[in-house]
Amino acid sequence: MTTLTDNLTKLDGYLTRFRPHGIQNLIGGETRPAASGAVFDTASPVDESVICPVARGGAEDIDAAAKAAAAAFPAWRDMPAAKRKKILIRIADLIEARAEEIALCECWDTGQALRFMSKAALRGAENFRFFADKVASARDGQNLRSPTLMNVTTRVPIGPVGVITPWNTPFMLSTWKIAPALAAGCTIVHKPAEFSPLTARILAEIAQEAGLPDGVWNLVNGLGEDAGRALTEHPAIKAIAFVGESRTGSMIMKQGADTLKRVHFELGGKNPVVVFDDADLDRALDAAIFMIYSLNGERCTSSSRLLVQETIADHFEAKLIERVNRIKVGHPLDPETEVGPLIHKVHFDKVTSYFDTAKQDGATLAAGGCREGDQGWFVRPTLFTGATTRMRVAQEEIFGPVLTAIRFSTEAEALRIANDTQYGLTAYVWTNDLTRALRFTDALEAGMIWVNSENVRHLPTPFGGVKASGIGRDGGDWSFDFYMEQKHIGFALGQHKIPRLGA
Ligand code: NAD
């Protein structure tokens, strides 16, 4: 197994190439600085050191990128499926070949622990392979025959699309959004999160090296309020695939209104894990801990609310506290580390502000609740017990390693609390009563629910949330519902009667 020192040495080698010019944009196949020449710095959350400058793109860069995507669209749309598929598979191969570089850069840029990020590149490659296999069927439709007409449907790609991604697991999420767009025949302009630009640049380079024609994949770095906003307002961009906060989704919907943008939103969550007293409590404990503290709790599908039945609550919480106190917080490149630093000071301030908020509202601090070390944005995994559903720690998305435990007595009460949130992304239910599991999941307000399991992704299944957690679904064929237009064509079967006016 490699050590922290080995990983730091390798990282240094990988970062050298970013040092002279920093991270630039990729527009129409050309690597360029921002038109204005402006840059911003990206820093590591481990020690706050600057990694490199990044092009600060604005409206002018977005305009150039959108025009390049529009110019490249007809040829990419019309490229034979087999050829398009080959390029996507080549992208997957190249991602795998650079898996170590991607993992180390991702950890340094975001603070995510290597034990989880070492698989991020492989998952990204898997996204490309999965959608490469769907290229050939993307245009398939139905035959809906009527007495007088042969009605057929087909799907066509919507056009150039904007992809806006957040800083949590940015590599995996970018591939998750971009692979289906390319498979559908769309061209893209990608605006990655300003806090984590490294692996988005590596990914765009990989696409270029894989033989993707110039202009099919454009990358513009910049801030949400300028580059992001300009992308959502650009008339050549037909749709926006967005992953981020619910509040930003709402802004994007307004910004895109004048150009009638189609939007796909994967937004925030405040997901419940509901543990009934008849469950396999050891497995429930493992899953609850994993789903809130892995990925530093910076995970949209995290189980940030623990709903535990009163009959077992003392015992369950005691075991939970013991485990939470033992979670290893440390350098993200140390293979032993389970929780790394939070992404940025801004986010650190937000997460740690809930330590006081929870106490003011009357919850009990049962573990953590403090910073770790005095450099970097490390916090101790935190648990609040004795919470009630209306408290801010039970309602607001904290997006850090902070779990809020709420007790319930009956199934009806558990359901009421589980649904008592503006969000509806995922839910996790632990019970060995099959009928209850059926009844309960049927009434839960969430886009994705797992019973007796943590979140285990299966690419053919629909991914997305209800309520303030999102609009639309990704995964399987659902991705094509967003990136493609349905077209209906009716062919007359014979001489059916046509109404004659003025005859
Ligand atoms: P964010 O909304 O602050 O930023 C996301 C992206 O939007 C960034 O690239 C940002 O630059 C851009 N942006 C900001 N303002 C914009 C504007 N006015 N117009 C256009 N673009 C703009 O989110 P974040 O803090 O980077 O990410 C964390 C959030 O993402 C959490 O709420 C989390 O739950 C959510 N998330 C959801 C899913 C999901 O699948 N549902 C997955 C991952 C993350």
TrEMBL record:
Keywords: NAD, Oxidoreductase. Residues 38-489 form the Aldehyde dehydrogenase domain. InterPro entries: Ald_DH/histidinol_DH, Ald_DH_C, Ald_DH_CS_GLU, Ald_DH_N, Aldehyde_DH_dom, DH_HpaE. GO terms for biological process: 4-hydroxyphenylacetate catabolic process. GO terms for molecular function: 5-carboxymethyl-2-hydroxymuconic-semialdehyde dehydrogenase activity. Pfam families: Aldedh. The active site is at E266. The keyword NAD applies. Belongs to the aldehyde dehydrogenase family. PANTHER family: 2-AMINOMUCONIC SEMIALDEHYDE DEHYDROGENASE (PTHR43720). This is 5-carboxymethyl-2-hydroxymuconate semialdehyde dehydrogenase. It comes from Pseudodonghicola xiamenensis. The lineage of its organism: Bacteria, Pseudomonadati, Pseudomonadota, Alphaproteobacteria, Rhodobacterales.
